[in-house]
Amino acid sequence: MQEPRGSSTVSAASAVGSEARWRREEMALLESIMQTSYPGWTETTVVDWTAVATQVGSRDVWQCKQKWMRSLRPGLNLGPWSDQEDRLLMDVMAALPSPARVDWRQVAYDLEKSNFRRSMKQVKEHWEDHINPAIVPIHEVPLTKAELAIIRETVMAYPHSGKLWVLLIRNVNDVIKTNADVMTELLSGRGPGGQNLTPVRSKSDLKKSLQKMVTRIQKEQAALAPAPPSSDSTLFRKTTLWETPGRLSVKRRTSARATASSSPATLPVAPALEPVMNPNALLAPAITAVHEASRAMGCSLDETLALLRDAISASVPDPPTTEVDATTSFLRLPPADTMREADLRSDDLSPAQLLVGLRTSDPATIA
Q: At residue 163, does pLDDT exceed 50?
């Protein structure tokens, strides 16, 4: 659980390389480490970022370096851009031989020579989101049908990606470049000063205009996702698995809910087919897995199932009498020649039963 904002210590439980926002105490710790280890730091100072990340504890090497260089290094201006900075950036970009291939580190260095200290990330985002003359604002030229289509498609494919807005602006601008109708529509709606520039959209403008739409699609996608079964459900049984030298051991638990003191891993077992469940939904992933394995190995379905049976049998020797045999007693396998392609289309098999060739009528079923 994330520590409450304003806490004075960095949680020891924080995962190294966490993607969460930097907390104030993390930034203060990084600044303290850099000031202590590298007093008088400059951009030419050689820094042991591995040692720095080890002292920070909750961030990896790349994150520590980027946070220092982009936000915390001395003299960096994090405030609003001035008109003078905007004009200088416009001049630097206009002087580039190829605007399609921009060395943003060099652009930031050119600004710094005029005593304007901005990070490479700041320079790139300010240009692409605000002052690039090729930007076509949505309030001037509304999004076209093709742009809206790729936006919806992207959100549905990656509804909860941390890079969703990066993907959106990239895909929208790709549509503009490759769709002649979209290009014409955007050029015709723009003033004469930008007719010679390939039109683009800006990420900040896109986010401001589409936040509600994206949120709605995300909710729709979340509603379509199947909910996991409750741990109290009769369809959710627990089996405790752990590895011992040379074999896989399985022991049934009588309790429906696992406890913290149980063995190393507690995993849900595929339930036996119930009338209230959709058998096709259960079978789909298993059928796909078997067919993909068959194609990958260049084998027939019969050969694939036989190989699967042999692999399971070879990996599990006879267990001691105090444990349930994962192969012979718990998952009783029929002969390979009884498993045919028709079994893959049977509606009375659960995925786990399908993969080991069991029928619901067999005496040893998966509970």
A: yes
Question: What does the pLDDT read at residue 315?
Answer: 64
Query: CB neighbours of 295 closer than 8 A, spacing ≥ 6?
Result: none
Q: Where are the domains of the chain?
A: 1-74, 78-132, 140-225, 238-253+262-356
> What's the token pair of residue 32?
């303290």
- Alpha-helix runs per DSSP H in the chain: 24-37, 49-56, 61-67, 83-94, 104-112, 120-126, 145-157, 164-178, 180-188, 203-224, 279-297, 301-315, 341-344, 351-356
63 to each of 39, 76, 176, how far by Cα in Å? 21, 18, 33
For 324, phi then psi, to 5°, come to -85, 125
Give the Cα separation of 148 and 143 in Å (integer): 6
Q: How many percent of the chain have pLDDT more than 70?
A: 61
On the 0-12 / 13-18 / 19+ scale of CB atoms within 10 A, 150 is buried
CA distance 69 to 46: 13
Residue identified by tokens 């060099």 is 106
Which of 255, 271, 257 is closest to 365 using CA atoms? Answer: 271
Burial class of residue 206 in the structure, from the number of CB atoms within 10 Å of its CB (0-12 exposed, 13-18 middle, 19+ buried): buried
78-132: what CATH class? mainly alpha
SS3 240: strand
Query: In the beta sheet, which residues pair with residue 135?
Result: 200
Other residues' Cβ atoms within 10 Å of the Cβ of residue 84: 10
Around Cβ 357, how many Cβ atoms within 10 Å?
22
Residue 203 has pLDDT above 80, yes or no: yes
Examine the pLDDT at 116 and tell me if it is beyond 70: yes
Q: How confident is the model at residue 294 (pLDDT cuts 50, 70, 90)?
A: confident
Kindly report, residue by residue over 305-352, the tens digit of the pLDDT. 877 777 777 665 555 544 444 443 444 444 444 444 444 444 444 444
